[in-house]
CN hydrolase domain-containing protein
Amino acid sequence: LKMARSSLGGMTTRLTLRAGLRTPKKHLYRTLCTAEFTMAGRTKVAAAQMTSTVDLNANFQTCSRLVQEAASAGVKLLSLPESFSFLGSSSEESLSIADTLDGPIMQRYCSLARESGIWLSLGGFQEKGQDDKHLFNTHVLVDDLGHIQSFYRKIH
């Protein structure tokens, strides 16, 4: 049993995991997961849309404006679209601009979340891969303190 409290609207999460349940015929083991969420009041979430370009600074300014508008409206979690930080005109250009999760591009968005006091769901960050020929389309969740809480490297 795991209990966690998040600053996202005072949400309490209870997660129960049971492992080792066997299906009778196939003798396969499964894990069952049950989640229970309780919210203190209502939490306002929003989705933002924008048209990204190859210009990192212009895109950041647009995102910053959208985040500030959302924060002023009482939003606690804002979802930004895929390729929010930039949209390269070619694979080569995207590879040359892509950055790591602890690099300066993501640090700007972490600071933005902290300064505005809201969580950011960053739809598709173009993350630099292990070499100069690959990048990941990574979804990143940043909390209101500016820390990366979760990320998922999309596989499709």
